[in-house]
Specification:
Layout lengths: L1 E6 L6 H10 L2 E5 L1 H9 L5 E2 H5 L14 H8 L5 H10 L4 E6 L4 H6 L5 H6 L4 H11 L5 E3 L5 H11 L4 H26 L5 H8 L3 E5 L11 E5 L5 E5 L5 H14 L6 E6 L2 E7 L3 H11 L7 E5 L5 H8 L3 E6 L4 H7 L6 E5 L1 H8 L2 E6 L2 E6 L11 E2 L7 H14 L7 E5 L2 E6 L5 H14 L8 E4 L7 H9 L3 E4 L6 H11 L2 E4 L8
Parallel strand pairs: 1-2, 1-4, 2-3, 4-5, 11-12, 12-13, 19-20, 20-21
Antiparallel strand pairs: 6-7, 8-13, 9-10, 9-11, 14-15, 16-21, 17-18, 17-19
Helix pairs in contact: 1-9, 8-10, 13-14, 18-19
Length: 510
């Protein structure tokens, strides 16, 4: 006989599922309220207490916690000893468990705050049933989400059973359900505790560093990271702040995109300048020249071991943080003469793991998650959409500009000359504003715009940006494309002798 145990708080959609299981030869076992619901709908069901030989007690707090139940759920059907013990003790094999939990989470969402009410809605037996069946998914299917009922019904009708791939998926969802349930209980019971303790409960296997404060002094701040997987290490200077971590994150996302010796200077997660050259020192000089004012108090990131010549150049400007993959001993000794500076080393191999990770951003009272935008797209998908093709030098400049603009805050524009930035515009509410701001910055620091190239993180919706860039002497543009106004923009480029590349990839960053 095949058995299905049903014990649910939310009875939505239960009857069709129970009928499907009965039609496929499953005998139903259930608890008080659930059994009554099934019987009232004309279905045959045995009570758990008839199987266990022990009645529900303590106002229903104890009803399924019995070897006759958990033996049938946890027995591994591949293990002959398990099967013989089931036979010996006359324990039924439970092939399916349909379980959902007391509405603790739902009561929180409705604003319930009475402590005793909430405690009585902490499910014990249900969580235990779910975890037991999920652990033994090879033998027992656990259905913990009402939204999966129809999928199970369809599979029962097609296969006559719940297949192992489906059982595994259901088990993963079940563990996610109990994890979220337990976190909700902890957060409710500990709401008077400190914020960092709540954070620790959300990420129990991560290291936790309590910061002096958050983005501003009146905010609390915590940095959490996976244990045994440090991406950075502060080898000199005081503790990093909340804002320092954000800046370093932006710096590493940027430097990851470059292969040649490259230097970037950042403030508030945006670069003041970026440059690549044959040497780090040459790259630093070009990088600093982009904007000689903003780098004061910023951070410098490099993609090579920091040599003495570059370190001496950096030392001439007050730099709060230097980020490098390695510091030779003599360079480290030299830079440690300034106590207010922080020296950070990063794991270059770890950047690849970072590039394959997800980002998480708080939103409303929840989290937004997405894969991180560090993937290097295939340039084989780029296409020239204008009559004029880029020159070899323009191609090189456009590739460099595209890597830079991919890391700026939207709307973003990067003006570059060879492999150095000359003007950056970011964070504006319209693209033409970013174009004008990038040109303004280039002119402010006396850069020659004639012959430079432009990269845009999103498409040009109208030709106004192209017309303005043409007046400044820009003859090559790279952008994602995809606007309704693409043809108008391409036509403008052809009229003005500008070459334009469509990458087909957008790099918005909010």
């Amino acid at each position: 006989m095949k058995y299905a145990l049903i014990s649910v708080s939310d009875k939505t959609g239960l009857v069709p599922l129970a009928e499907a299981m009965i039609n496929k030869g499953y005998k139903l076992i259930s608890t008080g309220g659930t059994a009554k619901h099934l019987k009232d709908n004309g279905l045959s069901v045995d009570l758990v207490e008839d199987i266990s030989g022990f009645p529900e007690i303590l106002n229903g707090r104890v009803k399924t916690l019995h070897p006759m139940v958990f033996g049938g759920i946890l027995a591994d059907r591949r293990n002959e000893k398990h099967l013989s013990e089931l036979t010996k003790h006359k324990i039924p094999q439970i092939d399916i468990a349909v379980v959902n939990l007391y509405p603790f989470v739902e009561l929180i969402s409705k604003g319930e705050s009475d402590l005793m009410t909430m405690i009585e809605n902490i499910d014990i037996g249900g969580v235990t049933l779910i975890r037991a069946a999920a652990k033994n998914y090879h033998s027992t299917a656990i259905i913990s989400d009402v939204n999966d009922y129809q999928k199970v019904i369809d599979e029962l009708e097609k296969e006559g059973r719940i297949t192992e791939p489906t059982r595994k998926k259901l088990a993963c969802k079940a563990f996610a359900t109990t994890s979220h349930y337990d976190r909700s209980i902890y957060q409710f019971l500990s709401k008077e505790e400190q914020q960092e303790e709540k954070m620790e409960s959300l990420f129990p296997n991560w290291t936790q560093e309590t910061l002096r404060y958050g983005e501003n002094p009146h905010q609390k701040g915590v940095f959490l990271s996976p244990k045994n997987e440090p991406l950075i290490d502060v080898i000199w200077g005081k503790q990093l702040s909340y804002n320092n971590y954000l800046d370093i994150n932006g710096a590493l996302k940027l430097i990851y995109r470059f292969e040649r010796p490259t230097v970037a200077i950042l403030k508030h997660t945006n670069p003041c300048g970026v440059a690549s050259a044959d040497s780090l020192s040459g790259a630093y000089d070009d990088c600093l020249a982009t904007d000689t004012l903003s780098p004061f108090g910023g951070i410098v990131v490099v993609n090579r071991p920091l040599d003495m010549e570059t370190a001496e150049r950096i030392n001439k400007v007050f730099t709060e943080i230097i980020v490098a993959p390695e510091y030779p001993e003599e360079v480290l000794t030299f830079l440690q003469k300034k106590k207010d500076r922080r020296l950070v080393v990063y794991n270059q191999k770890g950047l690849q793991k970072m590039a394959e990770s997800n980002t998480y951003t708080s939103c409303l009272n929840g989290l937004l998650s997405q894969t991180i935008d560090m993937k290097m797209e295939d340039q084989g998908g780029w296409r020239v959409v204008t009559k004029r093709e880029p020159t070899e030098q323009e191609w090189a400049s456009l590739k460099f500009a595209w890597n830079v603009v991919s890391t700026l805050k939207s709307n973003a524009i990067a003006l570059t000359n060879d492999e150095r930035t000359i003007g950056l515009g970011m964070g504006q509410t319209s693209r033409i504003d970013s174009v004008e701001f990038a040109v303004y910055r280039a002119k402010k620091f006396n850069h020659e715009i004639e012959g430079a190239v432009c990269a845009s993180d999103g498409f040009f919706p109208f030709r106004d940006g192209v017309d303005y860039l043409s007046k400044q002497g820009i003859k090559a543009i790279i952008q994602p494309g995809g606007s309704k106004g693409d043809q108008e923009v391409i036509k403008a480029c052809d009229e003005l002798g500008i070459c334009m590349i469509f990458t087909g990839v957008r790099h918005f960053s909010h």
